[in-house]
């Protein structure tokens, strides 16, 4: 009987996966710190919300949550294809980019394969690399917080990893690799290598600064409605890649995994360019506010092409302590984990009111660590 | 340059996965048959929609789709734990049961492992088994359309598959295995075997007919808000299992994969028992309508403890042709793929108006195949 029974053992590969939580959520922090209603500037969610058209569409369709979403996301992919100038067959929709990270690692890496990235870049790619028993090779950021493309190319050639991950703009640094340098990396790929180009923040980048052409057989570009479109909770991301890769994904992906509300909202958002342009403009003003805030405190900040800014605090220990202090004061922000920005905090651009409040709490919490 | 480049090859295991679409969606059929607004009785979605409280909560929270959902689904798991009489640590939330199927196969089966199920049962478990390179062993249904528990036990002992899958009530047959028989299967498990007990339709079963106790170290029970709760599109399912298994899932699962709208809706639904009871009662009346419809046409039907009923048409070829005919007449239903019910169609319980319309179209489409 069950008294003597034990849970069966997982497969050896899964049993060997370390316990990692890529990101601690504000809800978890609120439970830990007992502070509901935190100033929520830590997850690069949009403080400007979804488009009013998306909100109206979600409200209108709320009773139809009883229907499964279209497993092919056909209307959404069609709208994206028209906008991007590619084919529906170049597009696959996932439950956010994280879902696509899992899919791409699973598809191309066998246990024992190697993936290459910048140490301390967006954590979820590395999380899935570990979870599939794949070896992670990293190179450090440059001393200015930029991605070191030369180092990526060097290791990609010498050690021949199956997959190279580049978040551009990068998270958590906010830095951007110019398209010429990305093209150099792309052109340096060995024939069987995949470049995962995570463009979660592409909407904040002037279009002429994005890698051309859109399509390359060895590049999988990932984009999302989580950031400029303000739909992080709706879990809608997509990959742009070769149709043959889409067909492979099709054989292993979760067919009914995309929630209907998210499809509806994304589709409605695509019809509201003016709203998204307004968000992008306001985010640019917000970045300037944060640069100015840092400067007023005699601190460095990192120029960003995203909806967040890294602000220098001091040493890694000082920045960690400062983050803790902000949490206790009801402010949720995060920070880079790796040098050279591990002495910085990362703060999402909020509304003007949120930025003012953040500046006040920042000033109150600030312990000068440099003269 | 890219002119000579080709998409990189997937890992061998993924390259070997066959192209399978577990279910063709009504949206796909509408595009194929050019008939928007089909009578949608094929995917066992609830025609009774979500609870009005869930609809109100989703509408209220629509602007907050810009926030990620809580990656721990803590409030929802807490509410479920209170209701079920278990601990939060016994629960994991997934983007529907399909997501949990993928997770459980990935966790326990290495490539080359074997999983056991009834031939023709819910297709998505087998889909994930194939997609992870796991061998599928099947036993047929009994001649009455019931799951053959004795045969499952026999093969489970002799061939020692890592995992045994039982959908109870079963989909697509609608049949139910009494709890005593499920307990016999559970008690026959070898020490390292996992019983995946897919209880997607448990809400339609009288509570005293569900397997006791709720928890067993070797049993992973899966439930969903997709059926009686009318939230298929919101993608919220959960597994009830040993905390050690939950911790293993935690190491490889998609942490921010659960959409916020779905969490909100599920939580609000749990506060509206009267609504769900009303749905369950109406579904029971609907099943009786379908039994009577079949009888009026001199056809057999299968007693069901779900929100759908299988109705006999004739041979497999005749049932396939009849299904096609219904599709052309604007009715979306599906049918079992395997004997003994491959000559039946499977129709979801609709509203009274939908049932009346279905009965009319059924009569018009019906070509007598038996005297």
Account of the 3D structure:
- Chain A is an alpha/beta fold and 371 residues long.
- Chain A has two domains: 12-48 and 274-365, Aspartate Aminotransferase, domain 1, CATH 3.90.1150.10; 52-269, 3-Layer(aba) Sandwich (Aspartate Aminotransferase, domain 2).
- Chain A contains 13 helices and eleven strands.
- In chain A, the strands form three sheets. Chain A has a seven-stranded mixed sheet, with helices on both faces.
- In chain A, helix 8 (179-187) links the parallel strand 5 and strand 6 (194-198).
- The longest helix of chain A is centred in the C-terminal third of the chain and has 24 residues, at 273-296.
- Chain A is globular and about 55 Å long.
- In chain A, 53% of the residues are buried.
- The model of chain A has no long low-confidence stretch (mean pLDDT 95).
- At the A-B interface, helix 1, helix 2, helix 3, helix 5 and helix 6 of A face helix 1, helix 2, helix 3, helix 5 and helix 6 of B.
């Amino acid at each position: 009987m069950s008294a003597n029974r034990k849970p069966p053992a997982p497969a050896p590969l899964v049993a060997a996966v370390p316990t990692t939580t890529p990101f601690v959520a504000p809800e978890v922090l609120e439970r830990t710190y007992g502070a509901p209603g935190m100033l929520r500037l830590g997850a690069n969610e949009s403080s400007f919300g979804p488009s009013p058209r998306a909100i109206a569409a979600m409200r209108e369709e709320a009773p139809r949550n009883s229907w499964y979403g279209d497993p092919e996301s056909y209307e959404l992919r069609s709208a994206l294809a028209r906008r991007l100038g590619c084919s529906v067959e170049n597009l696959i929709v996932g439950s956010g980019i994280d879902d696509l990270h899992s899919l791409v690692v699973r598809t191309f890496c066998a246990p024992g394969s190697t993936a290459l990235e910048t140490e301390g870049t967006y954590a979820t790619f590395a999380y899935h690399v570990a979870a599939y028993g794949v070896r992670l090779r990293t190179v450090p950021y440059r001393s200015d917080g930029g991605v070191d493309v030369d180092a990526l190319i060097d290791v990609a050639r010498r050690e021949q990893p199956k997959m190279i991950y580049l978040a551009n703009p990068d998270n958590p640094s906010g830095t951007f690799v110019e398209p010429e340098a990305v093209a150099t990396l792309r052109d340096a790929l060995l024939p069987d290598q995949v470049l995962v180009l995570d463009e979660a923040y592409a909407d904040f980048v002037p279009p002429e600064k994005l890698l051309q052409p859109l399509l390359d057989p060895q590049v999988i570009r990932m984009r999302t409605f989580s950031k400029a479109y303000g739909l992080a909770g709706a879990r809608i991301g997509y990959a742009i890649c070769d149709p043959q890769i889409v067909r492979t994904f099709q054989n292993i992906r979760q067919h009914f995994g995309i929630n209907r509300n998210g499809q509806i909202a994304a589709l409605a958002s695509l019809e509201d360019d003016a709203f998204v342009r307004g968000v992008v403009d306001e985010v640019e003003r917000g970045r300037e506010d944060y640069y100015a805030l840092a400067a007023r405190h005699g601190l460095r900040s990192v120029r960003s092409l995203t909806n967040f800014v890294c602000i220098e605090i001091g040493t890694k220990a000082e920045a960690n302590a400062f983050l803790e202090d902000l949490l206790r004061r009801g402010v949720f922000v995060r920070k880079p984990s790796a040098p050279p920005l591990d002495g910085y905090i990362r703060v999402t651009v909020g509304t003007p009111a949120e930025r003012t409040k953040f500046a006040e709490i920042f000033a109150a919490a600030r312990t000068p660590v440099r003269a």
